[in-house]
Amino acid sequence: MLRSNPAKKVAFITLLSASMGLFTANVAAQEQPFELGVTKVSNGDVVSYEGECFKSKNSPGTWEAPKSGSWFWEQVTCSNDTVEPPVEPEPPVVDPEPPVTEPEPPVVDPEPPVTEPEPPTTDIPSDVTPFILGETRVVNGEVVSYQQQCYIAQNNPGVWEAPKANSWFWKSTNCGSTTEPPLTCTLPEVLIDNQCVIPPVECPDGSSAATAEECPVIPPVTCPDGSTADSVELCPPAKVVCDDGSVVDDIAQCPVTPVTCPDGSTAGSVADCPVTEVPTSMTVTSDGKGGYLIPRAEFVAIEKSLTSGELFDLVRSDTVTLDNASVEAVLPLRAANPENVKRAESIVDEALWEFLFPIRNPAYTYNRFLQAIAKFPAFCRTYTDGRDSLAICKRSLATMFAHFVQETGAHAPNWEGALGNPEWRQGLYYVREVYKSESDTTGPYNKCTGWAGERWPCANKSYFGRGAKQLSWNYNYGPFSEAMFGDKMVLLEKPELVADTWLNLASAVFFYVYPQPPKPSMLHVIDGTWQPNAADKANGIEHGFGSTIQIINGAFECGKGSTTAQAKARIAYYKEITSYLNLDISGEKLDCADMKAFDTAGAGALEVYWDKDWGWDANTPGNHSFKCKLVGYQTAYSAWTSGDYELCVEDNFNVQATDANGEIIPK
Fold first, then answer.
1. Across-strand partners of 291?
2. CA distance 332 to 344
3. What is the largest CA-CA distance in the chain?
4. pLDDT digits 0-9 by tens, 547-565
5. Which residues pair with 610 in a beta bridge?
6. How far is CA 80 from CA 22, 43, 47, 48, 435, in A?
7. Which residues touch 335 (CB under 8 Å, ≥6 apart)?
8. Contact 573, 399 (CB under 8 A)
9. Are strands 46-49 and 32-33 parallel, antiparallel or unpaired?
10. Backbone angles phi, psi at 493, to 5 degrees
11. Do the Cβ atoms of 375 and 550 come closer than 8 Å?
């Protein structure tokens, strides 16, 4: 058995104690006092705050006060905590001298203990509101009592913000009378130390300043054309090369290439060609190479006959878009703004936009909101049939905003990063899907296979959720790109535009005005164009906000017998926003708990895609129909896109179209 040398052991303990002292000194050097609104830290930094120490994580901001249990902080032991001194060895035990017996003193009855009177309890005035966690709602400046202490509310505390000293939401005060009126600040000011102040802004370079105008000037950026500008957004728009070789600022400015109609005339598109008689049977001839030839006139006639009707015409007129050059010219309060934009401005001005979305992503600017509305003239349009245009616009905005909050909100009622703003005002926080970035080109979002991959090919990009509607998948980016630019490849090649430009809000308006058969468009639900028929009513579907929940996410949030958590949240946001906009929603069906899905018997049923008609024709080769038909599910061929009917027949039956002279028309 090895024996340790006592002298060496003492030396080791001494050395270890010295090392521990050196380590403590090193840790102390790393700690820094945390000053709210000033101190900037990196992940792993250790700070001291209110006598306690914390290590930063998840990149806290300057206003993220260190506290135990926080997402941004981990409580650690401070380096200057008391270290127990080493235990001195006890002296050797020596046999004591025999004790000398002293005579015991006489027993004296002890005096009774003196009971100190308890200090008087400070009465809390009756006009101080007792704070009950999870129930009590307060306004800035209101005094409450909690655990025998009194506090003044500041920065809009929620019902779960327990009053405590040095909190962002509370300030300690004495429990005197509260006859003084509460101090209320006007946005953008907030209440700090019982004073209304404008909180500092964080500048693009990471520094802080009183206002954005006082931030340091960032060096100019180099634009794609070689020029310089203060920011990428101020760079001149990239030039577009048109099919005829001309160069313009926007694809919408490209000259329209006329098409030759079956009768020999020309028109801007196939849909503008003169109508010819609809054939009952297709004229099919062999091309001598195993394929077939059909006159284009027959394609045009069938397409027009199948896409004509009151509902088709209504939807077609409501999805007309403004050219992009006019959209990008829109500015707040500009005299030349389109009429529908001016109406939206009269309801939601820039100050109200800031109030409703105070913690939004900077990409969601007020100007882009107006541009998104400008792109779709049917949104907030003027109705000439007696309907209230202003009320419909206000209800449309409230509906869309409520869904914004659910789809892109922070959903963090107790998070200090929300700066005390209630959950219904935390919308547009995300512009990209959580945990996704533009450098991510892996995963399911960039797998383009089957007919969808052929129709809307991926371009080594990831089509994850972006924008206020969180547009996802290539088969949604492609059609949206066609609607915005007339070219599917613009957004398939640059999906980031849906996050970084006015398209981040236009994608939501696009979803609002376009139907998803058999569902009607949300626009038609709100403005009354859609009227529920007997089949809709049998399914519990009626006018109101509830039917818009059914449209946007009914499979998961509706028809469950009771209100789902998601639907309950959307309804709560809608109530708050409509109340703030002074919009009467009494009598409106808000919930969708008892709503079944829209079906093909409903008033909104409209089949808008082409697919192969498997019918039989005795007069054609192989007795094939050589036709396509309208269906209610998505395919590569849309009834909204002129010429897609012809493409459907060509691709399904190995066909080429011919002109009036029987010549093959190149694709």
1. none
2. 11
3. 142
4. 999 999 999 999 999 999 9
5. 630, 637
6. 12, 22, 13, 11, 39
7. none
8. no
9. parallel
10. -90, -25
11. no
DSSP-based helix, strand, coil % in the chain, nearest 5:
30, 10, 55
Place of tokens 């009952």: 280
Q: Residue 197 corresponds to which tokens in the numbers above?
A: 């102040």
277 burial type by CB count under 10 A (0-12 exposed, 13-18 middle, 19+ buried): exposed
User: Is 508 in a helix, a strand, or coil?
Assistant: helix
Which position among 142, 328, 407, 557 bears the catalytic label?
407
In angstroms, what CA-CA distances link 336 with 213, 326, 327, 376, 527?
28, 10, 11, 16, 26
Q: Cα(565)–Cα(264) distance, rounded to whole angstroms?
A: 60
C-alpha distances (whole Å) from 114 to each of 107, 119, 120, 174, 498 are: 21, 15, 18, 32, 79
115: amino acid identity, one letter: T
Cβ neighbours around 336 below 10 Å, total: 10
Residue with tokens 């209610």: 632
Q: Which helix (H) or strand (E) holds 52?
A: strand 52-56
**pLDDT over 70 for what percent of the chain?**
75
Bridge partners of residue 195, in order along the sequence: 192
Is residue 163 within 8 Å of residue 151, measured between CB atoms? Answer: yes
Distances (CA, A) of 193 to 19, 141, 200, 336, 482: 44, 11, 15, 46, 54
Q: Please spell the DSSP secondary structure of 177-242, one letter per residue.
A: ---SPPP---TT-EEETTEEEPPPEEPTTS-EESSGGGSPPPPPEEPTTS-EESSGGGSPPPPEE-
* Residue 51 pLDDT class (50, 70, 90 cuts): confident
202 catalytic residue (yes or no) = no
Residue 535 CA: distances (Å) to CA of 517, 599, 604: 15, 8, 10
- Find tokens 């005390």 and name the residue: 420
Beta bridge partners of 611: 629
- Are the C-beta atoms of 296 and 659 separated by less than 8 Å? yes
Answer for the pair 151, 168: CB distance below 8 angstroms, yes or no: no
The C-alpha atoms of residue 600 and residue 519 are separated, in whole angstroms, by: 9
Query: Rounded CA gap, 253 and 250, in Å?
Result: 5
**What are the φ/ψ torsions at residue 315 (nearest 5 degrees)?**
-65, -40
- Return the pLDDT at 439: 86
d(CA 403, CA 421): 18
- CA dihedral 436→438→443→448, nearest 10 degrees, is 130
pLDDT number for residue 240: 55
Token reading at 482: 């066609």
Report the predicted TM-score, pTM, of the whole model to 2 decimal places.
0.59
